[in-house]
Amino acid sequence: MKLTTEQKEQFERDGYLFFPGLFTPDETRTLTDAVPELYARQEEYNVREKGTNSVRTNFAAHMYSEPFARLGRHPRMIEPVEDLLGEKLYMHQFKINGKMAFEGDVWQWHQDYGTWKNDDLMPTERAMNIAIFLDEVNEFNGPLMFIPGSHKKGVIDAKYDLTTTSYPLWTVDNKLITQLVNRAGGSRGGIVSPKGPAGSMILFHSCLVHASTSNLSPFNRVAVYLSLCAVSNHIRRHKRPEYIAHRDFTPIECLPDDCLLKDYPVDLPWKDGVPQSAFVTTPEPFKIAA
Ligand code: SIN
Ligand code: MN
């Protein structure tokens, strides 16, 4: 899938592109159907919400689930990002966020690159996020909120928040959020939240400031997030386990466009369990072979 000049300009200006209904209901169903069994697993890669058994985030499903392994090689996601970054990509992070009915907790205001820089020593922001809705996203179930144009601010100083939710995050303070929202149009366009049917896709810049509120509605809001990094921009430290920040920098090769409907063979390296090495972490940067 190629982006038009207009789309590229829009991305440059706003920091995101929204593709409502990009994947058909048949394509999305293969993914949605696989989620309950993945969420039921008692594994470290399933991070639960504070005080409940609901899954907040499932990590690395592309390493052990066929439909998600195919999604991770889908040309409708990979090609536009390759086009924007001008380079082959590897999968830095892969998550299926639950934001389940009544129990899905907030995601505080943050930039993803803040975490990748501070924790993983990713050299620059040449990485991109893709979100794919597996449920309809509406105004009730905690849609993602963006501050348009906030990616232009570059890397913002962030504070490490270990307490608000069950998952630590580098967050941006309220004063700066207020300034950024006002600059982007205040209550008239300073915050946007793309909403649409299951199968919709958002592509967003790794410095775009975003957040989402809790889900008090009876509607789940399951979404897949892929963080795709330019191969030459790979991380330089393994401070986080491998199921959170991947260590295989092999360029992604796309499958055909119908890969969610046909059983193309895919490698599932963690099909029989996550290897012990994936839990080993090192505080020091690793050496890069010359
Ligand atoms: C994220 O920012 O990583 C997740 C936000 C969300 O799922 O609402
Ligand atoms: Mn994020």
Fold and architecture overview:
This protein is α+β, with helices and mostly antiparallel strands and 290 residues long. It has one domain (5-279): q2cbj1_9rhob like domain (Jelly Rolls, Sandwich). 21% of the residues lie in helices and 20% in strands. The protein contains seven helices and twelve strands. The protein has helices at 5-14, 25-32, 35-40, 66-71, 75-85, 112-120, 174-183; strands spanning 16-19, 46-48, 55-59, 89-97, 107-110, 127-133, 144-146, 159-161, 169-171, 201-205, 210-212, 223-230. The strands form three sheets. It has a seven-stranded antiparallel β-sheet. The longest helix is centred in the N-terminal third of the chain and has 11 residues, at 75-85. It is globular. The two termini are 35 Å apart. Succinic acid (SIN) binds next to β11 and β12. Residues 97, 99, 107, 144, 210, 212, 223, 225 line the site of succinic acid (SIN).
Can you give keywords for this protein?
290 residues, alpha+beta, Jelly Rolls, 7-stranded antiparallel β-sheet, 3-stranded antiparallel β-sheet, binds succinic acid, binds manganese (II) ion
Small-molecule binders: succinic acid, manganese (II) ion
* CATH top level assignment: Mainly Beta
Mind telling me the CATH superfamily name? q2cbj1_9rhob like domain
Overall number of domains: 1
Count of alpha/pi helices = 7
Write the layout of secondary structure elements.
Elements lengths: L4 H10 L1 E4 L5 H8 L2 H6 L5 E3 L6 E5 L6 H6 L3 H11 L3 E9 L9 E4 L1 H9 L6 E7 L10 E3 L12 E3 L7 E3 L2 H10 L17 E5 L4 E3 L10 E8 L60
Antiparallel strand pairs: 1-10, 2-3, 3-4, 4-12, 5-11, 6-10, 6-12, 7-11, 8-9
Bound molecules: succinic acid and manganese (II) ion.
